Amino acid sequence: MTPVRNLPSARPVSSLRQRHIIMIAFGGAIGAGLFVGSSAVIAAAGPAALLAFAGVGLLVMLIMRMLGEMVVANPGKGSFIAYIRAAHGPAAAFTAGWLYWFFWLVALGSEAIAGAIILHEWIGLPVWLLATALIVALELVNLAAVHIFGECEFWLSLIKVASILFFIAAGVLYLAHVFAPGVPAMWNPARAGGMFPHGMAAMVSIVPTVLFAMIGSEIATVAAGESAEPARNVGRVTRTLGLRLVAFNSLSVALIVMIVPWSDVVPGQSPFVQAMQVMGIPGAAPAMRIVVLTAILSCMNSSLYITSRVMAELAGHGDAPALFRRRADQKAPVNAIMANSVAGALVAFSSILAPGTVFAFLLSCRGGVMLLVYSLIVTAYVVIRRRVPPDEQRLFFSIPFFPALNFMTLGGVAVIFAAMLLDHAQRPVAVASLGTSFFFIMAYGARRWLFRRG
């Protein structure tokens, strides 16, 4: 078998720095799902939400580490789709690529509406106009040189990271009675039902929601391909990113349930605001709205970046129209960026024109597709590592207990999907996600049939 390092190189123009890569990784994984969406998780499972965030964080950390080691072994190939293609062939790469593109395209449109709703309270213009303006603004950022995108994402992500660090520091000082009366650290978690107020089943049911709130750090491995030293940058990021994400998410949720009685957390309202109000921090609500808007803009920026790069890569292999390829003289895949901007705007408009039908259908279809994509990343790692001679594996691969740990990771993904099927609220999302995956598999079959007839 041919080692992965002998794959043809396709490194794009190098202009991103390591600090950009790190913040792009944080920007992808830390968003409104933590700042606002965690309220629904805490309300549903109580203090057990902390265990869900820690467990899912560990799962994401392992997948990122696997992806990072593949990139280090054979850097500069583009997105993770190249490694799925090398391990499983063109059909799996086609399916994974389009599923991933679809996931982030719907994210682009839905986040545009969320950002427009926040701006509407301040500006008063129509939501559809504000959503369009946000997409156009970020389209211009992505059409510029890639380091402009990186710089923009760096500062947007830095605001989110700084906000979390401030919250963690303030929460620890509050519990230590450094300022304000404070409360005993375990007073609120021990009240109203203890750690599992609704049982273990409630904790399992929130796992899919927690996962969707933490998806996105794999964008960094794509961005690293546009840096001067992709292997070095990805290696540094993937070695520490997962642990940092687990720490940020777990510490934030732990502090929230210690400061605020979990039964007082209202789904849809930021639990960070509630906790800061309990601590007596002035201006908590307006400050958090700015942070949430920043998180939304960061997500939109990353969504447009990743959808354009994935589409350009698919076009380079004949899996998308040739006009979406990145030409040699381009700093960015211009046609792909423009096309995805229009498609994202259509998704946003569907939430206004048909929120209960078209938009709801799109959200359901994207819900679980990342589980299949992550599964393909894990299995690609197993295949590619086995192709490398044992005496050379230690140069690139360091995940212990291979391949047992990989199969345990796959088991974790399977548990999440099973939880979706067992939960009556998540079951339609799981079924729709399976239908979406089947659609792209059939699309690949139809493409092959047309090529043979042509």
Report on this model:
By secondary structure, the chain is mainly α. Helix content is 75%, strand content 0%. It contains 20 helices and no strands. Helix 4 packs across helix 17, helix 12 packs across helix 13 and helix 16 crosses helix 20. The chain is globular. The N terminus is likely disordered.
Helix/strand layout:
Layout: H1 18-29, H2 32-35, H3 38-45, H4 49-73, H5 81-88, H6 90-123, H7 127-143, H8 146-175, H9 187-190, H10 199-214, H11 219-224, H12 230-259, H13 271-279, H14 284-316, H15 334-353, H16 355-366, H17 369-387, H18 390-396, H19 404-422, H20 427-453
Helix pairs in contact: 1-8, 1-12, 3-10, 4-10, 4-12, 4-17, 5-6, 5-17, 6-7, 6-14, 6-15, 6-17, 6-20, 7-14, 7-15, 8-12, 8-13, 8-14, 10-19, 12-13, 14-15, 15-16, 16-20, 17-19, 19-20
Question: Any descriptors?
Answer:
disordered N terminus; mainly alpha; 454 residues
Structural class: mainly alpha
Overall outline? globular
Q: Give me the Rg, rounded.
A: 22 Å
**Order of SSEs, N→C?**
HHHHHHHHHHHHHHHHHHHH
Helix share of residues? over 70%
Strand fraction: under 5%
> What's the mean pLDDT score?
84
Number of E-type strands = 0
Query: Ends: how far apart?
Result: 32 Å
Main sheet, how many strands, which sense, barrel? Answer: none
Low-confidence stretches: 1-14
Number of helices: 20
